[in-house]
Amino acid sequence: MPDRIYNFSAGPATLPYSVLQQTAKDVVNFQDSGMGIVEISHRSPPFAAVIAEAESLLRELLAIPDNYKTLFLQGGASSQFFMVPMNLLAPGKKASYLNTGVWSKKAIAEAKLFGEALVPYSSETGGFRRVPSQGENQIDPASEYLYFVSNNTIYGTQYQKMPVAPDHVPLVADMSSDFLSRPIEVSKFGLIFAGAQKNLGPAGVTLVIIRDDLLERAPASVPTMLRYKTHADKGSMFNTPPCFAVYMVREVLKWLKNLGGVAAIRDSNEEKASWLYQVIDDTPYYRGHAEAASRSRMNVTFNLPTPELEKKFVAEAAALGMAGLKGHSSVGGCRVSIYNAMPQEGVKTLVAFMRRFAAENPA
Predict the structure, then answer these.
(1) Which of 16, 285, 288, 323 has its CA 20 to 30 A from that of 313?
(2) What Cα–Cα distance (Å) separates residue 252 from each residue in 20, 55, 63, 172, 196?
(3) Considering 103, 255, 275, 326, which one is annotated as catalytic?
(4) Residue 174 is among the residues annotated as catalytic for this protein
(5) Phi and psi torsions of 36, nearest 5°
């Protein structure tokens, strides 16, 4: 792939090369129809087959139980910050939120518009360097749900074990940045959502997996388009869906299945992360942001000895075909995003560069 670089951006992120090649053909002429995939009607049989296969693959890869609906929605994952409480919370009711970063803070702010948002755990005072361990937070059993963000792109933290909610309290998870990167037991959740632009496809579609009984919770005041039940009843076709993004999700899911599924990609992701963390642990030159027990397998964050060296590191890496390594503005430093489609060779190339850079640029 001489015309390709290694894209370590946090999102929109790198996509499988074979998927991009197939998409390039289908944008011009989809299934010899004489029309591109971006041109065909969402009501046509060819697109109906696309969205049906995407759902089928998703259900197969995650072993989604029959009593869950899968929805392809618009508005980005940020729209879920208000759709969740709009549908599942109500005035006079409360929900619990675990605050582990910017995205959970934004969700908490939205929840307060609809009910009481309890925060039984926050790592903000420590710089969001960790997520809670099991049993570290006390969840009010009267909560309508327990909300958390499974992986934090900005700070490089991730739950290695999912939180446990009290009986009858649904678990709601924002998995936008680690969805399908490892196996999960869907039946332990009430609702899962994920923007596509990390592990699933391009920006433009958000996946929602929701348990059937939660579809009935929305107050009568919720607008039609913002009800999960509206989209569940119409198979995500209440209005025109983001057809191109759904098509690409299908292609990525096909790619993932051919690799061996979610367990296989988990093993690859763990290897990639271990190589990076080994460099960080081998020398004080690179200082990881996240505490060891909370380290993300998707976003590896670290600092160099000085901001000047960080700037030089990012520039030299980019010149060598490794892009997207600048850290988020709120924490600085560097960030390496190694989502499912980042090939192991890309991480090996970066690791070699990191070792060489440290040797050639002493603090």
Answers:
(1) 16
(2) 9, 12, 17, 24, 10
(3) 103
(4) yes
(5) -80, 160
**pLDDT digits over 228-265, tens only?**
999 999 999 999 999 999 999 999 999 999 999 999 99
Please give the biggest Cα pair distance in the chain: 64
Q: Which tokens go with 111?
A: 């929840």
pLDDT tens figures, 177-198: 999 999 999 999 999 999 999 9
Q: Of 174, 255, 275, 326, which residue is the catalytic one?
A: 174
Distance CA 67, CA 69 (A): 7
Identify any residues that bridge with 210 across adjacent strands, giving them in sequence order.
Answer: 69, 191
**180-207 CB burial, b ≥16 within 10 A, e <16:** bbbebebeebbbbbbbbbbbbbbbbbbb
Measure the CA–CA gap between 311 and 184, rounded to whole angstroms.
38
pLDDT tens digit string along 313-343? 999 999 999 999 999 988 899 999 999 999 9
Element (H, E) at 72: strand 68-73
Choose the catalytic residue: 26, 69, 178, 198.
198
Closest CA to 191 of 206, 212, 205: 212
| Cis, peptide link before residue 362, omega less than 30° from 0 | no
Are 147 and 23 within one domain?
yes
The residue out of 205, 225, 259 marking a domain boundary is 259
Instruction: Tell the residue number behind the tokens 């004080």, with chain if given.
Output: 284
Residue 356 and residue 281 share a domain: yes
* CB of 117 closer than 8 Å to CB of 140: no
Query: Is residue 233 flagged as an active site residue?
Result: no
Residue 71 domain flag: yes
Task: Give me the CATH number covering residue 223.
Answer: 3.40.640.10
Question: Among this protein's residues, is 103 annotated catalytic?
Answer: yes
**In 186-324, at which residue ranges do the beta strands (DSSP E only) sit?**
191-195, 206-211, 287-288, 299-303, 322-323
Q: How far is CA 11 from CA 102, 325, 358, in A?
A: 16, 12, 27
Give the end of a domain, one of 240, 259, 278: 259
78 neighbors 55 (Cβ within 8 angstroms):
no
